[in-house]
Amino acid sequence: MPLSPFPDSPLARAADQLLHTACPPTLVAHCHRTYRFGAALLDGRQGAFDAEALFIAAALHDLALVEAYDDPVTPFEWHGSRLAAQELTTRGARPELVELVRDAIALHLEISTADDPRPEVAAVHLGAVADVVGLRLDQLPPELVAEVLERHPRQGFSAYVSEAMTRQAMAKPDSTIAALFQHARFLDLVAAAPFSD
After folding, report:
1. Is the dihedral of CA 107, 156, 37, 86 positive or negative?
2. Distance CA 58, CA 29 (A)
3. Fewer CB atoms near the end CB (10 Å): N or C, the chain?
4. pLDDT digits (tens, 9 = 90+) for 22-51
5. Tens digits of residue pLDDT in 57-101
6. Half-sphere CA count of 127, side-chain side, radius 13 A
7. pLDDT at residue 1 tops 60
8. Percent over 90 (pLDDT), the chain
């Protein structure tokens, strides 16, 4: 089953352009896989979702992991959510879309976000966790997973995300990612993910 095209609205194209301009290829591909896996995991749920909002949030959810966009104090997911909201507001996005994207990015590390009633918010979390540690990949058709990985190859992503998250946890010891290092053994989960980078 071929993958459907990404949303092609002006805001979605602008978000993807910012992603490509700001981020290394391995992070670009992760953001694209986050969208693909998140959307696929929503297919089993009732109700429609806003593909444009999900794509923009997935594209920009790790923007503040990049040094040029990071903040020395603020957790990257919160700082990135503000950057995305500013970008959308500048481009004239409707307030509901700005809020949805902001929340999806800000909350994507929280385990409880998987149950958020807003499907776009839940899907960024679900897609990112599927791609980082392999959670819920077994709920997707193997051929879909294989096609996503072929279309958006990992390019050493596990090593990249382990290093980036370690920097964040060390610099921001009160952050959610620091708590995941302490209580959930984040690096072990990444290493155990069912991927061959």
Report:
1. positive
2. 11
3. N
4. 999 999 999 999 999 999 999 766 568 999
5. 999 999 999 999 999 999 999 999 999 999 999 999 999 999 999
6. 30
7. no
8. 92
pLDDT of residue 44: 64
Cβ count within 10 A of residue 65: 24
SS3 label, residue 93: coil
Per the structure block, which two tokens stand in for 79? 């700082």
C-alpha dihedral over 24, 25, 28, 34, to 10 degrees? -120
Structure tokens at 94: 């409707």
Token digits of residue 147? 């096609």
Residue 134 · residue 193 · CB < 8 Å = yes
Closest CA to 7 of 67, 53, 73, 66: 53
Q: What is the pTM of this model?
A: 0.96
Please tell me the distance from the alpha carbon of residue 31 to that of residue 16, in angstroms, as a whole number: 9
Residue 162: closest CA among 190, 130, 131, 183: 190
Contact of 120 with 57, CB cutoff 8 Å: yes
Question: Which ranges in the chain belong to alpha helices (H)?
Answer: 10-22, 25-42, 51-60, 76-90, 95-106, 119-133, 142-151, 157-171, 176-184, 186-191
3-state secondary structure of 67: helix
> CA-to-CA distance for 132 and 159, rounded, in angstroms?
10
164 within 8 A of 39, measured Cβ to Cβ: no
